[in-house]
Each structure stands twice: as structure tokens, then as C-alpha cells.
Amino acid sequence: MKNFSVPIKYSLIIAVGLIVYFLILSLFNLHIYPLFSLFNGVIMAGGMWLALKAYRSSKGSKFKYQKGFMASLLTGFNATILFTIFFALYATELNPDFLNNLINMWRTDYGTDIGIVLFVVAVMGFATSLVLTLAYMQLFKDSWNTKEGQEHTY
């Protein structure tokens, strides 16, 4: 369980950050504009960076690239799942008119419903998590620009 403590802790922090940001936008009725969801990436990026740093410092010299990759990916995926669950509850129970306001022009033309919107929210979160993990792990991988690394080249 100790191996999963960093991803769980930081995914909860990220999910809370995303939910609070969404609720702040809803206070000003700005949550119906998808443009504001761009800041979700900033929240995810910051949280995943902190999670990866915490995981690396907890492992010290035993830090492995593959384990760091999985810790970062789990952090983003768990946060995405938690936020998608909140989004589903908000759109169906707390504010049933939310979807009508969010996709008022699409509602009549494309027949979108809550399922497709939740799918898009989840896919956006998973894609963001994967891209950030791939980018961050480039910073944490060992360099082959050493004498030991040069032995492994052609």
C-alpha cells in the first residue's frame, strides 16, 4: 500500500483542485464555456509534477523510470476518474439544466446526452495525464551521457 500512497494522495489533491475550480466558475456562470477548461490542464500539470517529485524523493536512489511512470500515470488517471464522477453528479443531480446550457446548439443538431459528455471529459483527462507523464518522465530519466551510459550505445 505504501507504493500507492503518493498517487492516491496527489490524485485526491488534484481532484479537489479541479472540483473547486469548477465550482468557482459555476459561481460566476462561467462553467458553461469549455474554454475555461484549459486551466484544468494547469491544475493537472502542477499536481502531477508534485506527485512525481514526492515519489522520486520517497524512493531516493532506488527510483526506477518504470515505477515513476506508473506513479505519475496512476495519479492523473485517478484524479480524472474522481473528477468525472463529480461532473456526472453535478450535471445530473445538482444542476440538471447544466447540459442544456453547455451544449445548447449541439443538443438539437447532434443529440448529445450525458454519456457522451462524460466520455469526452474522461478522455480529455486521460489524454492530459498520459501526455504530461511522458513529458515529465523525460526530465527524470537517467542520462546516457556518462561513461556507463556510453557502454550501452552502438
Put the structure in a nutshell.
With 154 residues, this protein is mainly alpha-helical. It contains 7 helices and no strands.
The major pleated sheet works out as: none
Total beta strands: 0
Terminal residue distance: 40 Å
Run of helices and strands: HHHHHHH
Q: Please estimate the helix content.
A: over 70%
Helix/sheet category: mainly alpha
- Quickly count the helices: 7
Tell me the radius of gyration. 19 Å
**CA-based shape:** elongated
Number of domains: 1
Mean pLDDT: 86
Low-confidence stretches: none
Q: Strand fraction band? A: under 5%
Structural description of this entry:
Keywords: Membrane, Transmembrane, Transmembrane helix. Helix 2 crosses helix 6. It is built from seven helices and no strands. The N and C termini lie far apart (40 Å). The mean pLDDT is 86. The radius of gyration is 19 Å and the shape is elongated. 77% of the residues lie in helices and 0% in strands. It has one domain. It has 154 residues and is mainly alpha-helical. The longest helix is centred in the middle third of the chain and has 30 residues.
Topology at a glance:
Blueprint (H helix, E strand, L loop, with lengths): L4 H23 L10 H22 L5 H30 L3 H5 L1 H7 L3 H27 L6 H4 L4
Helix pairs in contact: 1-2, 1-3, 2-3, 2-6, 3-6
Descriptive tags:
mainly alpha, single chain, membrane, 154 residues, 7 helices
